[in-house]
Design goal:
heterodimer, A: alpha/beta, D-Maltodextrin-Binding Protein, domain 2, 2 domains, 9-stranded mixed β-sheet, 9 strands, 42% helix, elongated, disordered N terminus, B: mainly alpha, MetI-like fold, 15 helices, 77% helix, 0% strand, globular
Chain lengths: 255, 268
């Protein structure tokens, strides 16, 4: 009998804890206003800074950031995830969003990014050019062609007239970077901004052919936005000199 | 004595009725997502989606690596379970907890740990390098990752079976003059065979579903390291229909494996 009561009470406790977890998710709504921004993973550092800036400029406003692969984020938005702003790491992914009619206005390009070769700090395979990546016994890791950084890699191969035989085609640019920083791979292809962010953990090798493959980053206010004006103000901040300065410091190019 | 047992058999212990509510909710929680997957499948292209080159390569790679890692689990897990179940020594309890650690560890952490062990700059990296072995980015890395996460399943079910079976027959056999190897081969193993089978099935199923440790440690390349779960995760980027179709294939394989094991031996 006592054990049954204990079981019942622990069941109640479980329900209560579930309810409180659910309540936590809503707590953003009471009192202040919130802008929810879905942004490509490569924007993590820059947008975190810009969000702080935005909160300082707007009393009582909170910016909620969700970072992930652009395709992932669009998939979530298509399934009805509540967000106000979406910033994509490439045009193709933004096109998917506009094809679904989720935007409230035209997307605007706010940054560009190019590929760079990345190696461990000691550059064990002595890579100095894109052609070196195709050398014998060089362990090259790239993004899979299915994801944006992989599509850019394929274009870079075409521009350079070099066919790579990578040892691994990773899911995301961060996965590529991790394989290089851990020393498993001799070289990888990532974005310039990733090399900047990784600092001394890696060695960057720019290559001229990367100029042929420029990734553009578009941003848009979403149709579902609760406060469209406030969402537009965040977009304006990204496009302003302040925003462009922060993006420039992270290695992004101007649109 | 016999009479008492009969009355007990005639009046089976009833279940408290309230128990059914959470039981049904729990079952629905597990089954509904499966129904959702089936509902999402694009049946008109199902055949094409699951027979594409990438899908087939991933499917066979998954089956091969899972079979290999299950064999490794048996080869090392059975002796581990026997030592843990039959020998009392200092630190046995601690050792048991540590061996079971991969059960609760996030697979990504397992992948990192393997990287720091077998990677080029890992603990054994220079030794492996001297032998001319490169583990990272190879199918061997996939098998290692799967074995790491699946081994505890085999050890747990084997150890449970060994403890349940007890040592009565082993003691009798030994007293009749059988050596330790004979006792192990003729008495211990046959007694715990159902436990071994259910452990092997669990290990195989766990290997089949392995994702985190593989993507961290082995990389992802068609036909070499890109197993079915990795292919599903990748396809989801561009072709969600293909991802759903492959997900269903994985579910069906898992159900088949468990169903076959249940039927043939009454295990699990």
């Amino acid at each position: 009998m006592p054990s049954r009561r204990r079981a019942a009470s622990s069941g109640v406790a479980l329900l209560l804890s579930l309810a409180s977890v659910a309540a936590c998710g809503d707590s953003g709504g009471d009192g202040g206003r919130t802008v929810t921004v879905y942004a490509a993973a490569s924007l993590t550092a820059t947008f975190t800074d810009l969000a702080r800036e935005f909160e300082e400029q707007h009393e009582g406003v909170e910016v909620e950031l969700s970072f992930g692969g652009s395709s992932d984020l669009v998939a979530q938005l298509q399934e009805g995830a509540p967000a106000d702003v979406f910033a994509s790491a490439d045009q193709a992914t933004m096109d998917k969003l506009t094809a679904a009619g989720l935007q409230a206005g035209d997307p605007q390009v706010f940054a560009t990014n190019t590929l760079e070769i990345v190696t461990p700090p000691d550059n064990p395979a002595a890579i100095t050019s894109f052609a070196d990546l195709a050398g014998d016994g060089v362990n090259v890791v790239v993004c899979a062609p299915e994801v944006p950084c992989g599509a850019a890699t394929v274009k870079a191969e075409e521009a350079a007239g070099v066919t790579l035989s990578p040892v691994s085609e990773e899911q995301s640019v961060t996965d590529v970077l991790a394989k290089v920083t851990s020393g498993e791979a001799d070289a990888g292809l990532v974005y310039v901004t990733d090399v900047t962010a990784a600092g001394g953990a890696v060695h960057g090798v720019p290559f001229p052919e990367s100029g042929e493959v420029v990734n553009t980053y578009p941003i848009v206010v979403l149709e579902e936005a609760e406060d469209g004006e406030l969402a537009q103000e965040f977009v304006d901040l990204v496009l302003s000199d302040t925003g462009q300065g922060a993006l420039g410091r992270a290695g992004f190019g101007r649109p | 004595m016999a009479a008492r047992e009969r009355t007990r058999a005639e009046r089976p212990v009833g279940l408290p009725r309230w128990l059914y509510v959470p039981a049904v909710v729990g079952a629905a929680f597990v089954l509904l997502p499966l129904v959702a997957i089936v509902a999402k499948v694009d049946w008109s292209h199902f055949g094409d989606l699951i027979t594409s080159e990438g899908s087939r390569a991933a499917f066979w790679l998954s089956l091969k690596t899972s079979a290999a890692s299950t064999s490794l689990c048996i080869a090392f897990g059975v002796p581990m379970a026997v030592v843990l179940a039959r020998r009392q020594f200092r630190g046995a309890a601690v050792l048991r907890s540590l061996v079971l650690l991969p059960l609760v560890l996030p697979p990504v952490v397992g992948g990192l740990a393997l990287l720091y062990t077998f990677g080029r700059r890992g603990l054994l990296g220079s030794e492996l390098d001297a032998l001319g072995v490169q583990v990272a980015f190879s199918t061997v890395a996939v098998v290692l990752a799967q074995t790491f996460v699946a081994l505890p399943f085999l050890v747990v079910s084997m150890e449970g079976a060994l403890r349940t079976a007890g040592q009565r027959y082993e003691v009798v056999a030994a007293s009749l003059g059988a050596g330790p190897t004979t006792v192990f081969r003729r008495i211990t193993l046959p007694l715990v065979l159902p436990g071994l089978l259910s452990g092997a099935v669990l290990a195989f199923a766990r290997s089949l579903g392995e994702f985190g440790a593989t993507i961290t440690f082995a990389g992802s390349l068609q036909g070499r390291t890109r197993t079915l779960p990795l292919e599903i995760y990748l396809q989801r980027e561009t072709d969600p229909d293909a991802a759903v179709a492959l997900a269903l294939v994985l579910v069906v394989v898992a159900v088949l494996v468990i169903g076959l094991a249940r039927q043939s031996r009454g295990v699990l």
